[in-house]
Amino acid sequence: MSRKAGRPAEKTEARESLIRSAKLLFSGMPYEKVSTRLIAEKAGVNSAMIRYYFGNKEGLFEAMITSVMTPILDSMRRHKQSPSSQSLESIMRAHYLVMSKDPEFPRMLARIMMQPPSEVQRQVTEKMFDQLVGTLGDDLLFTQDKQNVFRSDLDVKKCKLTFISMLMFPFISPPAILEKHQIELTPTFLEEMLQHNLSVIASGMINTKVQNQDNT
Q1: Residues 6+ apart with CB under 8 A from 194
Q2: Cβ distance 69 to 98 under 8 Å?
Q3: Which domains does the chain have, with CATH numbers?
């Protein structure tokens, strides 16, 4: 009786373990070098569990990407419903919280986005990016533009590009560049970089009148 009660939890743990192992392996190795057998061995489960939960390697890859990016997408959806001058700051905090846990993950995303559009992993990643910087991003930014959240002398499209750049760097900076400038992506540095970016957004992009209204 007790064994039956434990099975759902064990299955859930097996699924989560596969996603964690897939993230580690896909982040550190080329997609084509990562086999389902290798992922299963890393997770300590039978490879049949991949077929059971995800169908195949592509399905597991998509589940892994979705699992990691969901907190950021959720933050964007919340702020899309009720945007304010704090929206960009909150989204950036969510992004940094996710990416700082594993700096190799954003490098993997950048690497995959440079692959041919026909590659399955590129298609999966691009679908996620379309939500982040496409539909949701445009809805949020252009809504803020209509509400005069941005400074009137700034172009919203350029604000979007600036914001994306802040999200992606320093995570995808070439290691040689970081080393040359004696930058190490430690938790302390990333927290300081986050605070720096938030300060730049608050003082350089946001309409101070709207910001003061939101703070009252």
Answers
A1: 92, 93, 96
A2: yes
A3: 1-55 (1.10.10.60), 64-215 (1.10.357.10)
